[in-house]
Specification:
- The protein is α+β, with helices and mostly antiparallel strands.
- The chain is 26% helix and 25% strand.
- It has 3 domains: 68 residues, no CATH class; 91 residues, Immunoglobulin-like (Sandwich), CATH 2.60.40.10; 52 residues, no CATH class.
- The protein has 4 helices and 12 strands.
- The radius of gyration is 37 Å and the shape is flat.
Length: 257
């Protein structure tokens, strides 16, 4: 057995024996930062080079993963991440389900000056917070079927009110239907409102057709029969069958000047 494996076996043996001797007492840094002597001994092995950094790290990871040594800040962050993920999932489901009633909160309100808007109209958003939180800004988001259309942060006035103006136009405002405005302020203070939106009808541009006999310019197919005086092109390449007869001398060039 190599020296490295012997040291590793000795290292984890010390941990195992030490765990039994202390009846697997959890060390909570939140209430006490006293470290048992057997842990200090392992650290001393590492400091003296008797075990490697990797072995020492494996040992600490083992202790933390098995809740033998608890690190409150890490656990607190993990719990917060789980909480935020759950809240985001619930909000995402709510945004995507337009049959749900808007979220209402006693801490913040939000409303629009109309319930229906056409493209190009101005949407006036107003609301109020019950308690002002320092310089905290209110966040306004506009969604359509789960897609974010607009976002802004607005100041709260001294009396707790706020307002914001949005012009309903732009590349993201292309869906007809119900839109959702969500106002959030501080932690967990959310209110929503809905409105209907109708984009202007888009004019369809007819596809331009070009005769294949004139590959370098775009000339309408026959009929009608066109003459050189009817078009703006000169000295362009002509392929047969040349339905308009632009290449009179059959040299492959049409409407020669």
């Amino acid at each position: 057995m190599c020296i490295l494996n012997v040291k590793k076996l000795l290292f984890f043996s010390i941990i195992a024996v030490s765990l039994v001797s202390v009846s697997i007492i959890s060390i909570s840094a939140q209430s006490s930062y006293e470290i048992p002597s057997w842990v200090k001994g392992i650290a001393e092995f590492w400091a003296e080079g008797k075990i490697t950094d990797a072995e020492f790290g494996e040992g600490l990871t083992f202790l933390i993963d098995n809740n033998i040594i608890k690190v409150p800040k890490i656990q607190e962050l993990e719990n917060k991440i789980v909480q935020l993920e759950n809240e985001n999932n619930e909000l995402r489901k709510h945004v995507e389900n337009y049959e749900d009633e808007p979220i209402q909160s006693s801490s913040i309100t939000v409303s629009t000056n109309k319930s229906n808007y056409d493209e190009g109209e101005t949407i006036v958003i107003t609301g109020k917070v019950s308690t002002i939180i320092g310089e905290t800004l209110a966040t306004l988001q506009v969604f359509t079927y789960g897609n974010l259309v607009d976002i802004a942060q607005v100041k709260i006035t001294e009396n707790g009110s706020y307002s914001h103006v949005i012009v309903a136009e732009g590349p993201l405002w292309n869906e007809q239907g119900t839109y959702l405005i969500r106002a959030s302020y501080g932690e967990g203070n959310i209110a929503e409102s809905k409105f209907d939106y109708t984009p202007n009808p888009r004019e369809e541009i007819p596809a331009q057709t070009c005769d294949n006999s004139y590959p370098d310019v775009c000339i309408e197919p026959y009929p009608p029969d066109l003459n050189c005086g009817d078009i703006i092109f000169t000295n362009f390449r002509v392929l047969q069958p040349d339905p308009h007869g632009f290449d009179r001398d059959k040299d492959g060039i049409g409407c020669e000047s």
